[in-house]
Amino acid sequence: MVAEGDGALRRSGGPQPPDLLRLHEAIAGLFATQGDWRRAYQHLRSALEIARDGSLRDALTSSYNRRYLDERLYGPFTDRPPLGIALIDLDRFKSVNDTYGHLVGDRVLCRVADLLQEELPPEGFCARYGGEEFVLWLPGVDAAAAFGIVDAARRRVARHPWSELQPGLRMTISAGLAHETPGPETPLSPERQLRSADALLYAAKRAGRNKVAYRDAQTMQLITHSE
């Protein structure tokens, strides 16, 4: 489970270059041959942190990967409540690959990941869930703020100048947002929230895409864009 290192990993902006990993390992070996175990340990620890960072990042987008998300979903829960979890899907992404090719599709995924990672709360993060799906983890914000963050991300994607990447290209996202503020007898369950977000994502798709779906205390609200 990642705790104090979370912020440092996020600020790194993605996996460190493999050469830096090998450099720390080589320096550690040099200090070890000289009997300077303290400095050897410091460089081995740096190498370990770089290797761990890379193992928790998606190789294509440099966002967090499914392994990191699973650690947060199923490991010890340390975030303070409340918590919002949004499951996001790129609309009609298969047609992007079919029309423009997988290289363009990969560039779209990378750019969407960058747009999703803007304006997150201090302990929030974006993870690639698989394929063209991403998860936004939004701790410590109320339902209104969580919706504002997700809908702002939706608008950033919709308004992005995709035609600069490929003439005629347009991209939107749909999202399902599950938010919980637990009571003393109802602890947070991120796994349950992700399942709820999945169902809400399908509701947003059925409503026409380029939407955020969330459930308030009594009813489901589908929020549509107004551009």
UniProtKB/TrEMBL annotation:
Keywords: Nucleotidyltransferase, Transferase. Gene3D superfamilies: 3.30.70.270. GO terms for molecular function: diguanylate cyclase activity. Signal peptide: none annotated. SUPFAM superfamilies: Nucleotide cyclase. Residues 81-217 form the GGDEF domain. Transmembrane segments: none annotated. Its EC number is 2.7.7.65. PROSITE patterns: GGDEF. This is GGDEF domain-containing protein.
